[in-house]
Structures are given as C-alpha cells and as structure tokens.
Amino acid sequence: MNIQDMELMNGQLIEHVGKVIVGKTHTVELILTAIIASGHVLLEDVPGTGKTMIAKSMASSLDCTFQRIQFTPDLLPSDLTGIHFYNQKSGDFEFRPGPLFANLVLADEINRATPRTQSSLLECMEERQISIDGSTRQLERPFIVIATQNPIDNQGTFPLPEAQMDRFMMKIRMGYPSGEESVEILRRTVASRSVDDLSSIISREQLLKAQETYKTVNVNEDLLRYIVQLTEATRKHPELSLGVSPRGAQALLKASQAWAALHGRDYVVPDDIKLLAEPVLAHRLVFRNRIRQQEGLAEHIIQQILTEIEVPTETLTTGGR
C-alpha cells in the first residue's frame, strides 16, 4: 500500500459511511486518522447525537472482529477481560476470553461504569495486552477502542480519570446537525436506512498495511520542535495544573502523519498539526479550578496557544520541495 492508496481509502470510507451518517465527514476522517495511527477515540456529546451509530458504521466498514460493550455501573473488570473457569469434562481450568479480545471494541457510554471497571482498560489500550491471574495475553492487531460518553454532569456517570483520558488519541464532540441535515436524517428514517445495510470495504490486511505506510510520512525537524513548543506551552499555562504529556505530543505527531497520508501527502504541513491540535490535546488538560474543567475552555486554550506560537515556514516543512 502507498500514500495514493490511503487517499483512495479515505474517500471510499467517507462515501460509504455517508450512506447512513449525515453531515459528519470531518468526524469520520478524524476517526479514520486515529485508527490508522493505532489510536483510540472518545466520542462525547449529549444523548441522541449519533455517537454509537457512527462508531458502529466505522466498525461495519472494516473487515475486523468487532465487539460492543454496554457499560453499566454493575459491570465488572472480568466481564471485559474474561475469566478462567473449571471445565468439569476435561477436569482443567480453561480461559474464556472477554469482549476486549477483538480488533475493534465499542465501549458504549464508558463513563457509566465504575472507576474500577474503567481502569481495566488501561493496560490493553496502552500495551495491547491483558494480564489475568498472573498470565499476560497479547491482543491481536489491530486493536482499537472507540468509546462514547455523555457529558460528565449527567446523572449516573463517573468522570474518566486523567490516566484514562490520556490513553485516548482523540476526543471528538459530535455536535447537533444543521437544519438541512436534520431533514435528511428524517428522510433516511422514512427510507429505513440503517447501519445494518453497510458492508465491509476495508480488510484487516489493508488496515495493517496502512498502519505501517503512514509511518513513512516525512516530518521536518522544525515541525517536531513546533509540536514540542505547543505541548510545553500547556504545561506553563497559569490556569492549568496539568498540561500535555509526552504521550500527547507523540499522539499529535502520529495523527498528523496519518492525516497527511490520508490526504495524499508524504509530508506533514503546519496546517495538519493546527487542525488536529484541538481533538488530540484539549482533553489532556487539567484545570487548577475543577469547575472550569466543565466549561469547555480547554479547546479555547489550545486555540489561544496556536495563535501565540510561531508557525514554521512552508519551505522548511516540506524539505524545500
């Protein structure tokens, strides 16, 4: 697979998902970017905005093993990872894998589970492995978690801890559709178009090759320094007690490479980084005043930093092309 193939893949997926999802082209591109970069995605918005539907649409478009987990307060870590049980016929203990043993996992309403259950995802999201009863089991590649959550001020929810948030490459807000998009949604409701109508168009082998191809995208040294400057600025911001971690800087780099590849380029430009900075970095910020954490000011701070940091010139970023 080459860069041109990845650009074609991007266009095909947008068109395919667009058969059931109205007006979310940019969201689809962001999710595909994270998947190509082997990153996890957190979709957040109020109920009824299509979070689960777009996640299922992406899963239906990929020819990979898929599991959906409905998170509830009584869900236990073993319900996710699996258990050892005694088989009376064989007289031995056998392992029954949980739903995390899949290529694509939809963690629906993840913030309705208790912190204990949420924490069971930390190891598998970061290291692609699960430790159970003293033994470690590797997860099959690719392994991607697409989680959905309602805003944390809703009843019956548990806010995700900072360590959990940092595992997500991107946090994407769905938003309400426009008036025309709402009319089109109703038209499709009448026509009974659903996610079940979608077939897979990207094989597991193609996805694995794409996850290797994007790494060949060139990133100029000045852009690496630009990413570092952006992340360091968050650590020095007076309103923040916790800025972007080195993992966050790596996520922005990988996402920029994947975004460039999906748009037919073998090099990253500053606009790639600026476009992805908000969904990749904003959810990693922690305010000194936790009340302000819920006011959606993290995105504003990222945009403010983007205007303050000098952008490298185009001749430098493209290697003098």
Automatic annotation (TrEMBL):
Ranges for domain ATPase AAA-3: 40-170
Protein name: MoxR family ATPase
Membrane-spanning parts: none
Keyword Acyltransferase: no
Keyword annotations: ATP-binding, Nucleotide-binding
SUPFAM superfamilies, per the entry: P-loop containing nucleoside triphosphate hydrolases
MF GO annotations: ATP binding; ATP hydrolysis activity
Entries under InterPro entries matching the protein: ATPase_AAA-3, CbbQ/NirQ/NorQ/GpvN, ChlI/MoxR_AAA_lid, P-loop_NTPase
Organism: Paenibacillus amylolyticus
Family: Belongs to the MoxR family.
Annotated ranges, domain ChlI/MoxR AAA lid: 233-304
